[in-house]
Amino acid sequence: MRTRRRCLLGLAAGALAVTGLVVVPGTAAAQGRGLDWQPCPDAKGVDCATVEVPLDWAKPGGEKIHIGLARRKAKDPDHRIGSILMDPGGPGGSGVDVVKQTEVFTDQVNARFDVVGFDPRGINTSTQLKCDTQLSQDAMNARHPTNQAEFDRLADLNKRLYDSCREHSGALVDHADNLHTVRDLDAVRQALGERKLNYLGYSYGSLMGQQYAEVFPHRIRAMVTDGNMDHSLRSTKDFMFTETEPVEKNFLEFAGWCDRSAECALHGQNTKAVYGDLREKAKAGKLVDPQTKQPIDFYSLSQLAFGVNSPQGWTRLATNLKALKDGNGVLDMTAAADVSENPYPAIWCSDWGFGVKDFAEYARLRGALAKKFPNIQWSPYVDHALSCVGSPVKYTNPRKPLDIDHAPPLVMIGNVHDPATVYRWNRTAAEQSGAHLITYEGWGHTAYHPGRSQCVNDAVDAYLIDLKVPRDGLSCPSLEKPGVVGTQSMEPLTAGPYRA
């Protein structure tokens, strides 16, 4: 499937050694005693249960925590294949809540599998990782420093936030990395009584699947990761640049549509020039909301402009930009999504370890972004590179290329215009793992959902049910159309940096 990277085997072992993880048998609860499924009190037809796992997988006899589960039983039990586990992403997304609230899979898969959502450690119905809410908000608000003093304040807030997490959650704050979650996944597989794992991971859940395949390749029946992370990114700069690249490309698509289409409020006015003028006014503190007269800074304007990533909202975005240009009208801010929340810095920082030394380095990175991507200049996702500045969270899951040996065929899905888990990451993860990549040529974040792309869904269903791998190079056409709300993507209910 790929050229084997034998030299990386030592690195894989080293990654486990860094975290202190060792391969040990599962807990008693995960070795066949079964699960105490009970009807979920807040979801008709859904059962809930928990699995007990070690807080520290290097000390399986020590303190325990629990992992929450929710299950919808197979609708055709006579032809049931087994259980399929899913995670919606985040970090911070709740698989339990998603399974309670909606049908994740198509009817064909729902008929043949028990669908089980799980909450990763620290989240929702699992043992929770609790941190001070105000400190979390203050740290997020401080991620745009303009001098060294503000940079130092951000570092102090990140440290205080970590201290609050430790105060409220104890040692869990130091055992929240994805390598622990991988071990939890395998404990859940055993508790479900499944000899091999069936898994669907969206967005951040893709990292769970990728690293499970590295540690337990022989325990997989079928694995789909939709919207893939690239855990081989070499630097903070790589992260910031790859996250901003698709937003710039999507802006150019929007500007081209506006300049061509009479239905765009900026038609005939040179959309790139209009936005450039607004951007520079925002940077200079001279852009105001035409109704409230409150200032709109560069980051607020950029959040509004993030609407370029959804063609179904382009007409609304253009109307907003025209209102700002003309200085009159009412802004419809529903087009701007808050994508900068990171509720679990312990997870993010232990998995990625992105660092920025000081304000001078930050200023150089931001200047390089503006030069490389002259129109949009920034993406809200860039802020996550500052989550770990000053934080004592230990970087325990070192970034490196995937090294997966002896796994069955794996399937990945990537969206060409995805501004979160960008298409470049999906290509890289597929090349490193040898996975079969399904390309969705459209927009939005993740692609496999009931009622969306029949092309994607049919390929995934055939793989999950019959283990039929997609043909090489499978590419599915886009469904989204500018200004047509009915073509919007149907994305999973995720929470955290990589939510829709």
SSE order and pairing:
Elements: H1 9-19, E1 38-39, E2 47-54, E3 64-72, E4 82-87, H2 95-101, H3 107-112, E5 113-118, H4 133-141, H5 148-169, H6 178-191, E6 197-202, H7 204-215, E7 220-226, H8 236-260, H9 271-283, H10 298-305, H11 314-326, H12 345-352, H13 359-372, E8 411-415, H14 423-433, E9 436-440, H15 454-466, E10 475-476
Parallel strand pairs: 4-5, 4-6, 6-7, 7-8, 8-9, 9-10
Antiparallel strand pairs: 1-2, 2-3, 3-5
Helix pairs in contact: 4-5, 6-7, 9-10, 9-11
Task: Write a concise synopsis of the structure shown.
This protein is of the alpha/beta class. The chain has 15 helices and ten strands. The protein has a domain at 6-127 and 178-233 and 408-487: Rossmann fold.
Structure report:
It is a single chain. Residues 1-33, 335-343 and 487-500 have low confidence and may be disordered. This protein has a domain at 6-127 and 178-233 and 408-487: Rossmann fold, CATH 3.40.50. It is built from 15 helices and 10 strands. By secondary structure, it is α/β, with parallel strands linked by helices. Strands 1-2-3-5-4-6-7-8-9-10 form a 10-stranded mixed sheet, with helices on both faces.
CATH architecture of the domain at 6-127 and 178-233 and 408-487, by name, is 3-Layer(aba) Sandwich
Largest sheet: 10 strands, mixed
Binned, the helix content reads 25-40%
Distance between the termini: 32 Å
Major sheet: order of its strands?
A: 1-2-3-5-4-6-7-8-9-10
